[in-house]
């Protein structure tokens, strides 16, 4: 049988291992009160770092031609249903384009609206060859619109130095491209300021 001294030594050594943060005096104090609560310090596991899903780089997108429209798809008739969807989207956005609708309210909505599917016309330009181009906007980038015309020609029209007109249920709005050089996603959060005169 184990003696009292050996038992005390074993308990003391056991408590030192079990409670490494407590000193000798604290352990003895615990023993005198006859109540021992063993502490458990689990090993901290390193959290696995989440890998962010990487998208394609701009170079990879160009190589894969993700945003290019195939020549056989460049037909005006194909995108007329897209225009009809866009018209319904604008009507819902503006709560119906009634005759008594305030023009500035419609204008403010259109400034932040998605223009893919809208029919636009270049009415003013510093480059005369752009004036008169009319078609459906297929793609909007920061600096250009890609427009498909009724002649089934895909035109890349820069926003800079061009003024576009947009007609919707008798309401005509003008887009000054020089002040519109934003991505569609950025426009939805931007606050546009009213200006008296705007030059090309």
Attribute tags:
single chain; 200 residues; alpha+beta; SH3 type barrels; 6 strands; RNase_P/MRP_Rpp29-subunit; tRNA processing; Rpp29/RNP1
What does this structure look like?
- By secondary structure, the protein is α+β, with helices and mostly antiparallel strands.
- It has a domain at 58-185: Ribonuclease P/MRP, subunit p29 (SH3 type barrels), CATH 2.30.30.
- The protein contains 6 helices and 6 strands, in the order H-H-H-H-H-E-E-E-E-E-E-H.
- It has helices at residues 4-18, 24-32, 58-64, 80-93, 103-112, 184-187; strands spanning 119-125, 134-140, 144-149, 154-158, 162-168, 171-176.
- Strands 4-3-2-1-5-6 form a 6-stranded antiparallel β-sheet.
- The radius of gyration is 35 Å and the shape is elongated.
- The relative contact order is 0.10.
- The model has no long low-confidence stretch (mean pLDDT 81).
Topology:
Layout (H helix, E strand, L loop, with lengths): L3 H15 L5 H9 L25 H7 L15 H14 L9 H10 L6 E7 L8 E7 L3 E6 L4 E5 L3 E7 L2 E6 L7 H4 L13
Antiparallel strand pairs: 1-2, 1-5, 2-3, 3-4, 5-6
Main location: nucleus
Subcellular location: Nucleus, Nucleolus
Pfam families: RNase_P-MRP_p29
């Amino acid at each position: 049988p184990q003696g009292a001294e050996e038992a005390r030594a074993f308990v003391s050594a056991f408590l030192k291992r079990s409670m490494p943060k407590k000193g000798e005096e604290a352990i003895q104090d615990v023993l005198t009160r006859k109540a021992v609560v063993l502490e458990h310090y689990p090993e901290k596991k390193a959290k696995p770092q989440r890998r962010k899903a990487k998208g394609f780089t701009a170079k990879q997108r160009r190589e894969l031609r993700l945003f290019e429209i195939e020549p056989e798809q460049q037909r005006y008739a194909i995108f007329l249903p897209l225009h009809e969807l866009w018209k319904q989207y604008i009507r819902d956005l503006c709560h119906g384009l009634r005759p008594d609708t305030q023009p500035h309210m419609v204008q403010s909505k259109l400034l932040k609206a998605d223009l893919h599917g809208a029919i636009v016309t270049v009415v003013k330009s510093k480059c005369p060859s752009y004036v008169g181009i009319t078609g459906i906007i297929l793609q909007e980038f920061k600096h250009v619109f890609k427009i498909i015309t009724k002649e089934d020609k895909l035109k890349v029209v820069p926003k800079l130095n061009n003024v576009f007109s947009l007609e919707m249920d008798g309401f005509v709005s003008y887009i000054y491209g020089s002040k519109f050089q934003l991505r569609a996603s950025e426009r939805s959060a931007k606050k546009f300021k009213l200006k008296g005169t705007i030059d090309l």
